[in-house]
Amino acid sequence: WERQVHALVGVLASQGKMSVDCLRRGVESLDPYLYRTMSYYEKWAASMADHCVRTGLVPAEALRSAMGYVEDVELSSSGDAARARFAVGDSVRILPERERLAYRRPHIRVPGYIHESVGRVTKHHGAFPDPELLAYNESGVKQPLYTIRFLQGSLFWGYAGSPSDATDVEVYQPWLEPVPPEALEEEEERVRVRVLRARAHAERYVPGPGHDTRHDVERKACEAEPASGEVFRYQPLAEALIRVLSSDDSPYAVMTSADLRAAVARVDGLGQRGEGTQLVARAWTDDAFRELLLRDADAAARQLGFEPSNYTGSTGATILSVVQNTPQVHNLVVCTLCSCYPTSILGLSPAWYKSRQYRARAVRQPRELLQEWGVDLPDEVSVVVHDSTADHRVMVLPQRPANTDGWSEEQLRGLVSRDSMIGVERTLVT
Length: 430
Known about the structure:
The protein is an alpha/beta fold. It contains 20 helices and nine strands. It is globular and about 65 Å long. The chain starts with a helix and ends in an 8-residue tail after the last helix.
């Protein structure tokens, strides 16, 4: 049923009946108790059911026993893309929630930990449909999307890694305001001093008796999440929605049962051709291809015959970016808002990637998290965390192992792991 739920989202999106942002808004709208106790795909099913009732795809009576109240949806007209106000290298500040009033709660596409922080624009991705309107099945002026780089020490007080460690976050233009370059320079100097002090304190600190370490607290929280394979309380809701939307005798079906089976087969086939390993191996053996991959990953993927976008249709295509590990930089991919992931290239994301523990600690404690994966980085290697979004998926290009000169692409592919393309593995074993 979980794979069917995943496939059903893709079908509704491809038919223009539901966007990914609609799905996310529905998940974010869940009662706090339900949000804490539902599994990952139970939340998807509840969100889809609520959306289908509100938009008239399914009558309320068909799901009333499993769903609560529903509300009307308001539609608006479309418009042109907003002019890009920022360029690469510009210093910007993220607006506080109270200052950005042109949205309706609870759907917010800005991670809470970056509000009021100062960072630098590192990339302009173009304009995309406004997710704050898509969440309500509306359309309007497209909004420019940027990658903003923040120093870890600026985001998290007490950060004790390297002063150069950073997190990249995709932010839409309405949440940005310009700041003078000297303001960012002053912040970077304050961060440097603060991180060095935090490091000195961390080296002296030992948890007192009777107190769990932060890692223990987060581990226990993660263990409290629904376990894989258990009986799911809200599974009947998911199965009821699947029957209503795909049964051959249902008057509200948007697909046939055969269509659903084909959609599930497509989900099962995601990433099964080894698309990610092929991209990496070709980049290791072809300098021109590597330059294309880092500059325009979508074009590079299509050159090898791969579709880089997770979905198309009215929702719009996702874009793929590839970031390169070097002797000086290690990249780590996460999605703190949901679990955005390049499924068309790497397949379905692993369960740990979707867990609250990984999503929280990847941005707050990237070095400690990587150490637990066996990646112990010296201070001279900066960690750059990439907090991806539904529109922009990120993959890591790992470093080529030594002593592999003369190896064929097929041999090199065997060295590349999924984890290395997420960033939780650095040294590949020959």
